[in-house]
Design a protein that fits this description.
Blueprint lengths: L9 H14 L4 H19 L5 E11 L5 H11 L4 E8 L4 E11 H12 L4 E13 L24 E3 L2
Antiparallel strand pairs: 1-3, 1-4, 2-3, 4-5
Length: 163
């Protein structure tokens, strides 16, 4: 572990300590590490140095909008190579929220997310990207059959955040 020292003016140090307490960090070092990871990941994404990512796309939409739920589901099926899982929640009589877990090439994930949020009737959408190493080329057997008698999965993909 490498150590370094930083100097902060009193006001900034107090604000930082308040943030540490609010977020539940046990010390300044943990907070600084998380902030550095966040900034490094954002920088990689901005410079397009993160070819792969894992992501969460969350959006709210009016489920009364004509065929919108079907269009959103069809888009996820059309991009099954990116879509890992979807959580659907009913917010009220008119609105639903979905969070789609995505994994794959960063450009493809962004393009897919942009297309989902641009659908008529989607009211709000946010994409949270995390640069990742996807070792899709390292395939291996699961070594266990499906419980329903179906075939073994031939491989699975490991996803690891970059930092």
């Amino acid at each position: 572990m490498e150590r370094f020292t930083i100097s902060l003016d009193e006001k900034l140090a107090k604000e930082f300590d308040r943030l540490i307490r609010e977020r539940g960090y046990s010390n300044r070092s943990e907070a600084v590490r998380d902030i550095l990871r966040e900034k490094l990941e954002a920088s990689r994404l901005d410079r397009e140095e993160a070819p792969d990512c894992i992501a969460a796309l969350s959006y709210i939409y009016n489920h009364h909008e004509r065929d919108l739920a079907e269009r959103l589901t069809a888009a996820q099926h059309d991009h099954h190579d990116l879509t890992v899982s979807t959580l659907h929640a009913h917010l009220d009589h008119d609105n639903c929220m979905e969070t789609v877990i995505l994994r794959g090439p960063t450009k493809a994930v962004r393009a897919f997310a942009d297309s989902m949020v641009a659908e008529r009737g989607v009211r709000h959408g946010v994409l949270n990207l995390v640069p990742a190493d996807l070792n899709a080329g390292r395939k291996h057997q699961h070594g266990h059959p499906h419980h329903d008698g179906g075939p073994d999965h031939p491989y699975h993909v490991h996803s690891r955040p970059k930092t």
